[in-house]
Amino acid sequence: MEEKLYFYYTNDLHSNFEQWPRVTAFMKDSIAARKARDQDYWLVDIGDHMDRVHPISEATVGKANVQLMNDLGYDIVTFGNNEGITLAHDDLYRLYDDAEFDVVCTNLHSLDNQAPFWLNRHIKYTSASGVRIGILGLTAPFNDYYHLLGWHISSVYDELDRYVHELRQDTDIIVLLSHLGLSEDQEIARRYKDIDVIIGGHTHHLLRTGEKINNTIITAAGKHCSFVGEVILTWDHDLKKLINKEAYATDITEYEKDMQSLHKIISLQEDAEQRLNYPIIHTNYPIKVEWFQNTKVMRELTNTLREFTKADIGMLNSGLLLESLPAGKIAYKDIHRICPHPINPVTVELTGSEILEVIRVSLTKEFTEFQLKGFGFRGKVLGKMVFSGIEVVSNFHANGEEYVKTVLFPDGSELDTNQTYKLGTADAFTFGRLLPEIARSDTKHYFLPEFLRDLLVTTLEKQYS
């Protein structure tokens, strides 16, 4: 006798709640189809369901995301870096207190040895016919952040060495929920033939029909839940083994919305607006934001950053602030709206020559107009770089390109190319290849749980009240 087992999954919603009513409708239809045929199924999320870019998640510190998954009847989730490192320790500790589903993260540990009650290293399910399924969950090891928040993410391979062997002894199927990214998933599939399925996320890759490596099928459904994933496993009860593994990602961007879910989102949005509507300041004049100009609010924010991080030099890009603020009451919801990024302050140590190269690149048209996607940045373009603690003296070539003539400190001394300085900036620049000198720095210190918008609140209270 053959039996089909179904997993329906989401990954990397990033609080894109506009899409959630479609996810709900698709899942309800899929569940109804399985129930009509008396087939086993599980609803799964692979993390980054929450993103504090959205007012609902900001106002509820992710609790509303959990509520929505409860409403839909999820069975098991793991979590991503947006749950793990954008919440203060206590907020993550309490995030899933009201979850009506299992939470599995094999490699998360509390540095005080006080693990939340909802945390599971692995989960075992048994289908109605007796097929035993073991599930592991892994999240990306951003320990520079996690350690500052009182958590530790252990080695992916140390945990797999232990738990894959353990699960193989008393389960029939092993499924890994991986918020690690595609390249890691592929490497795991190459190393661990006992893992049958890897449902992935984090790098926002889309595998429409899965990818098979050795004995493992890998799948993922992109980002923002434009797609929803499905895994179908065929178990042969006579042979006592899996005889087929299928994975699909379905485009649901045109799927009809579930009205009950839509009304829930509207209600959550209204509640979030009220929660975030507490006043910060009252100003008699508009606060002007321009992406390609050196505005007062960006200068003051960069000064606040430098003072907060105790850096020698501060540096922020103007594209971090999305729009101007009108005269009158400015509430926290306004701060969140114009600075929604889950971006933290950071200091890096660089030589004067490296700082000069960073400044040189930041002056280019290619940099200021670059439409950055990811690394926490939720804006449109990077915009003009603003500095604190130094004066950048520049000029223009005949072709219109700006170049650095000299860099001066307030006392008139020049930047020493051989001296090491502490630079305070946005942590987005410590990733990728945008500013290689910053990314390559061996000395980085992140400031958590503060976001740049928290420094913007401080700036407005001090400079604009």
Shape: globular
- Given as residue ranges, the uncertain stretches (5+ residues, pLDDT < 50) are none
Task: Provide the domain count.
Answer: 2
CATH architecture of the largest domain: 4-Layer Sandwich
Strand order of the largest sheet: 6-4-3-2-1-14-15
CATH 4th-level superfamily of the largest domain: Metallo-dependent phosphatases
Helical element count?
15
From the helix content, strand content and strand pairing, which structural class follows? alpha/beta
In terms of DSSP E residues, the strand content is 25-35%
Give the helix proportion (percent range).
25-40%
What name is given to the CATH topology of the largest domain?
Purple Acid Phosphatase, chain A, domain 2
The residue-averaged pLDDT reads 96
DSSP, total strands: 24
Can you walk through the features of this model?
The chain is of the alpha/beta class. It has 2 domains: 2-272, Metallo-dependent phosphatases (Purple Acid Phosphatase, chain A, domain 2, 4-Layer Sandwich); 279-463, Alpha-Beta Complex (5'-nucleotidase,  domain 2), CATH 3.90.780.10. The protein has helices at 20-36, 55-60, 63-72, 81-84, 89-95, 143-146, 156-170, 182-191, 259-275, 296-309, 332-338, 352-362, 365-368, 436-439, 452-463, and strands at residues 2-10, 41-45, 76-77, 102-104, 108-110, 119-120, 122-126, 132-139, 151-153, 173-179, 197-200, 211-213, 216-219, 227-236, 241-251, 279-283, 313-317, 328-331, 345-351, 385-388, 391-396, 402-408, 420-426, 444-446. The strands form 6 sheets. A 7-stranded mixed β-sheet has the order 6-4-3-2-1-14-15, covered by helices on one side. Strands 7-8-10-11-13-12 form a 6-stranded mixed β-sheet, with helices on one face. Strands 20-17-23-19-24 form a 5-stranded mixed β-sheet, sandwiched between helices. Helix 1 (20-36) runs antiparallel to helix 9 and helix 10 (296-309) crosses helix 15 (452-463). The protein is globular, with a radius of gyration of 24 Å.
